[in-house]
Amino acid sequence: MTDLQEVDRIAAADHHLAVVSTTRADNSVQASVVNAGIVGHPVSGDQVVAFVTYGPAKLAHLRARPRATVVFRAGWNWAAVEGRTEIAGPDDPFPGIDPERLRLLLREIFTAAGGTHDDWAAYDRVMAEQRRAAVFVHPERVYGN
């Protein structure tokens, strides 16, 4: 498997739930569950896996060691995407992404990860209050069954 379209098909089959693995300072692995989706990178346009987070451990690991593996599964089908990461958020300024672009980007990622919302203003407010960030995983290895 080398196709992000196939990854997205598997992701969509189970609510875009994914396990994200990052590396701690002691080289052990930290894993958590997120909703993630495939989006165009906001600067390059390249397809990346993206998720929104405010997890302090996950963000600290990614700041220090900017790599992650994201695994989606649906039944016995699974797909993994490994690669370098980038963070864009209120605590992680990103060239070309101002606060307004970040607000819209968080919505775009949420939607790509299967999310819907009845009150986007409330969504925006919570994202800002929680200082949520966008994480992009550039696909260097894509594999699965």
UniProtKB/TrEMBL annotation:
Signal peptide per UniProt: none
Keyword terms, alphabetized: Oxidoreductase
InterPro entries: F420-binding_dom_put, F420H2_bilvrd_red/Heme_oxyg, Pyridox_Oxase_N, Split_barrel_FMN-bd
Species name: Streptomyces endocoffeicus
Protein name per the record: TIGR03618 family F420-dependent PPOX class oxidoreductase
One Pfam match: PNPOx_N
Superkingdom classification of source: Bacteria
Ranges for domain Pyridoxamine 5'-phosphate oxidase N-terminal: 13-92
